[in-house]
Amino acid sequence: MWRLPVFPKDEELPTWLHSALLAIVVAPFSGFLLFHGVRAIFRAHLPEIEGPDFGIYLVRAPLFGSRAVVAGIGLLFLSSSFLGLAYAYSRFSRDHWPGKVLPWVLLAIGLGMLVAVQ
């Protein structure tokens, strides 16, 4: 099912530029979570991670061992949800409903894993 674009000027961009801009926008958010997730998996240690606002923590207390590994995997799911969100807004997923649902499923799994270990 075809839908109207969110931003009409957006349709004038070539597909490669549109995709590159989406990737550039989500890369800092996804990269931050990916870095901490991979580091937690390999070191089995996850330090406190402060959120975008001062005093608000994504991870409140340092985690060690298997809890840090599970939290690291949760961070990988959260990182993937940002990439999935970029895919959901790309032209490649225009008519594919799984591309629209996938970011939210990944977000729920990642948050569930982080809440479970804290």
Instruction: List the helices and strands in order.
Output: HEEEEHH
| Alpha-beta content class | mainly alpha
Shape: elongated
The count of strands amounts to 4
User: Nearest-angstrom radius of gyration?
Assistant: 17 Å
Task: Calculate the terminal CA-CA distance, rounded to whole Å.
Answer: 42 Å
Strand content: 5-15%
The profile of the biggest β sheet is:
2 strands, antiparallel
Strand order of the largest sheet: 1-4
State the share of residues found in helices, binned by percent: 55-70%
Could you report the average pLDDT, rounded to the nearest whole number? 83
What's the number of structural domains? 1
Uncertain regions spanning at least 5 consecutive residues:
none
Quaternary arrangement of the chains shown? single chain
Number of helices: 3
Keywords: Membrane, Transmembrane, Transmembrane helix
Transmembrane segments: 16-35, 68-89, 101-117
Any overview of this molecule?
This protein has 118 residues and is mainly alpha-helical. It has one domain (33-116). 62% of the residues lie in helices and 8% in strands. The protein has three helices and four strands. The protein has helices at 15-43, 66-88, 97-117; strands at 45-46, 49-50, 57-59, 63-64. The strands form two sheets. Strands 1-4 form a two-stranded antiparallel ribbon. Strands 2-3 form a two-stranded antiparallel ribbon. A hairpin with a 6-residue loop joins strand 2 (49-50) and strand 3 (57-59). Helix 1 packs antiparallel against helix 2 (66-88) and helix 2 runs antiparallel to helix 3. The mean pLDDT is 83.
